[in-house]
Amino acid sequence: MRKFIFPIAFLFLTLTLFSQVDERQITVTNVVVPVKVLDGNKLVENLTIEDFELYEDGILQKIEALYLVQKTNVQRKETLREFNPPLSRHFDLLFQTIDYNPKFAEAIDYFFNNVFRPEDTLTIMTPVDNYNLSRNAIRTISKEDISKAMQNIVRKDTNVGSSSYRSLMRDLKRIVGSISNVGRSDESAGEFSYSDASSSSLELMFPRYRETLQKMEAERMVDYKKFIQFAASRKGMKRGQKNVFFFYQREFRPELSSSVQNRLMNTFQDKPQILAEIRDLFQFYRRDFAFNTEKVIQAFADACISFNLIFMHKEPDRSVGISMREQSEDAFNAFSRLAEATGGVVDSSQNPAPAFINAVDNSQSYYLLYYSPPDYKKDGKFKSIEVKLKNKNFKIAHRLGYFTN
How many structural domains comprise the chain? Predict the structure, then answer.
């Protein structure tokens, strides 16, 4: 395979959308706000500058320019002052997935055939590495070949990068299966048979379950500091649109079914340590999802990044005595809030192709609103932005604010 995609150095280290501030004078700062106004899934394109109200920290601001942008072209503008909006585009496709989904091929094909242009830039981040599409590849290699190469990279890196996670998942299932079959010798015990009814067998398996679970969670740990670093790197990019599409796969944790828990608790009701372990590991367990959502939202909004979440459903495997508990609600909630706060899309589906197509199409058209806050001070504070429509009932999405630095 011809090499035209080169890894970049750091896991979360490249993004791009709109230049946040443009300082023409020391005392004047121009702030740009990308805004999407939707009627269902369709952009409302007939709005004027008079239809909008824009507030910074609750104070009404004077909108000095409106640009209606489609892809990389200004379709219409209204200006009290003329600006030069950046219209170039950078795309980031982030894959945090456990299993390769064949529908990724359809999504990547659509992206190169219908969205990506030679002047655009692209970074793909997999569980293994980061890849930056080179200008030479765009000039010399067909879209079909580039798409196939990208598909191969995502498939290979997904299989390699998640192999340890899948191995730990299999170990957890074996341990839970063994625990569930303690004291059982009948054929319904399934593939994980374990006939020893003594508490000593459980006292050995409970620590193994806890240790293996902790290892598996470490494999999928989401470090919010890397997201903040990622946003900071994208803020410094001298480009226009910065669109992130984050593919995140639904997670499960194997645990004892409720019927098995009840049986073991009845069997070992005179063993308080066993009862405590069952409650701690299978009834009250919650993973530590230390994700500072507010800080990440502010960092992405400040960098003017549009974050889009493609949440991939997956039905869990079924085994006798094992219950697969949903493990990704916390991550889904955090990433959904991030998408909503940056004007992005949240789409949840078993098929990532239409979800991605919807999100990427949604990123193609938007308004740019410019204003100059009269009391701007470089004090490093976060300024909240709110955009409203006058006498119109449409869905509106925009970034939450910016830092004055």
Answer: 1
